[in-house]
Amino acid sequence: MASAELQGKYQKLAQEYSKLRAQNQVLKKGVVDEQANSAALKEQLKMKDQSLRKLQQEMDSLTFRNLQLAKRVELLQDELAVSEPRGKKNKKSGESSSQLSQEQKSVFDEDLQKKIEENERLHIQFFEADEQHKHVEAELRSRLATLEMEAAQHQAVVDGLTRKYMETIEKLQNDKAKLEVKSQTLEKEAKECRLRTEECQLQLKNLHEDLSGRLEESLSIISEKVPFNDTKYSQYNALNVPLHNRRHQLKMRDIAGQALAFVQDLVTALLNFHTYTEQRIQIFPIDSAIDTISPLNQKFSQYLHENASYVRPLEEGMLHLFESITEDTVTVLETTVKLKTFSEHLTSYICFLRKILPYQLKSLEEECESSLCTSALRARNLELSQDMRKMTAVFEKLQTYVGLLALPSTEPDGLLRTNYSSVLTNVGAALHGFHDVMKDISKHYNQKATIEHELPTATQKLITTNDCILSSVVALTNGAGKIASFFSNNVDYFIASLSYGPKAASGFISPLSAECMLQYKKKAAAYMKALRKPLLESVPYEEALANRRVLLSSTESREGLAQQVQQSLEKISKLEQEKEHWMLEAQLAKIKLEKENQRIADKLKSTSIGQGVGPAQENPTGVNAGGQEEASTKAVLEPIHSTSLVPDVESREDLIKNHYMARIVELTSQLQLADSKSVHFYAECRALSKRLALAEKSKEALTEEMKVAGQNISRLQDELTTTKRSYEDQLSMMSDHLCSMNETLSKQREEIDTLKMSSKGNSKKNKSR
User: Fold this and answer.
1) Sorting pLDDT into bands at 50, 70 and 90, what band is 692?
2) How many domains does the chain have?
3) Which of 251, 335, 411, 529 has the fewest CB atoms within 10 Å, i.e. the most exposed one?
4) Is the separation of the CB atoms in 112 and 75 below 8 Å?
5) Taking phi first (over 0 means left), then psi (-120 to 50 degrees means alpha), and beta for anything else, what does residue 478 get?
6) Which of 155-159, 469-473, 760-764 has the lowest mean pLDDT?
7) Is the pLDDT score of 411 beyond 90?
């Protein structure tokens, strides 16, 4: 896949490269043409510059000559002004010289006239040359502007091409990086796929072995236990209970509930339509309150009054059909027995429509024959009579198809299973036809009502009745449209659900077999319910596994606890022996203390009577407390602290005794602590030894797994080397292809740079011009 994608990308890039190369050649030709044009314009510009310089030189010479002539004229005028007063003074002498002066004046006038004409001619030439120069300069400037614009456009095209080439280069580089990453990911995926294939092969092998064993077991069970294959014959297979599809049953119940709601709305609209039609007959064209209506309308009204007995059963039949579809049943055409009753009620309603149709048509004709009926109203009545015929025909068509759908539940040979789908599609078409007919009736009756409301004899009762009929017709139209769209939306599901039935068969053969199947289904459900018993609460597997590990590795194992109990019992026995020993010692000390206290009391009586009262009162407390060990130690210590006249020797002995008693208590507590620690350490050592044994077992298992993993790794390494070689070959081919593309792109870059340089030179030359 990756190689195909790469080839497609490279083909696209090659096509783009060929297009760009063709554009580059066109641009080259354009640049060469522009260079030739610029060279021709340069030559023209040089010629114009030369002509302009010549004209400027002539202009300068003419201006210089003109200045000289102007100075000459001024001198002549001064001489003339000087010569005029002299001539007045010397008329006489001037008469002789006047002739000379007149000749000179005429000569000067002729010279001046020539110079003026020449000056005028030079001015005209200068003006024409200046205008021509300006015109040529304007043309050259416009040409220069167009050339600059063209050069800018060419520069923009060249910049766009360079940008495009750079983008393609970057894109190719990115594609190269992506392809490298993709190749790495593909290598990883290949490794994973190999591992998965190995695992799948192992699983497939295990499954094959398992399934072969199960197949042999099932074949042996079938050969020993199954007397015959009931799915081989359709008569027996129809009695088998199919798999329970709760979703299908809930869907069918939901659909039946929607259909029931639509049928209820349709029944209400039909009741209103027939009832209001009966009221209209009593009002128009003859009001029954004023005059008697025709016998035809009386009979028609009598029949319409019975409409509820024909319309209400449709709702009841649909309700019974909805109630028969439950979650526990199997809903197919062979088991929907209540559809037959709905079909019968629909047939009775069709008979009612056939019975009232002639009277309805005659009633409309009677309305047309009345004097109040106009031509427009007569046309609407004719259209309504046609619509009523169509409505009855549509109901008959619908009843025919519903009756066909009810046949499988009563007569299995009445409708072939292959025709179920065509019948259902025809039911949908009939419902759409009913909707179209009701739209026409609504349209024509609305026109009829508007015409009747414009009549001068129209009463308020007639207007109200017409509005009620129109509302019932609109409700009928809406209900028919809803039912038609509902059936069209669910017809595919109805056709697909027809295959719902016994396994490996075309369906139920007869209603009797379907009924037997439902009875077997109930019995099977009761049996499964009886077998269902509440399970006892059990410990989850994970928790039990954790408890086992705790039991194996805990310090409070059974053996450790038994040893601790045994050691604690031995300690208790030793402590009881020590207690008895110390009790005897305490009694002996108590007797000695009583003697010593008696001696001290006798000694103190001689010294002071008042001081002996304290010991005499405290001694009974010490004697009475001889039943307990702690009370005896208090009795030993109290007389020592209470008497201040005891000699130093006795007080020193008491201090030494108290010190040793405290030391003994401290040592016993330390001994108990050391014993408890030793027991704890012993239990921990046993637990550690068990853990060590378990760890050694796990180590052996892991070493075996490591051996197997090492073998797998070596095998995978061999496969990896082979795949690496194949991928390296592919990558080398790809790298060669990319190198060739990079070379072509570098050539294109060089060509673009040359075009840039040439365009920049042209633009600079044009700007300098």
Assistant:
1) confident
2) 1
3) 529
4) no
5) alpha
6) 760-764
7) no
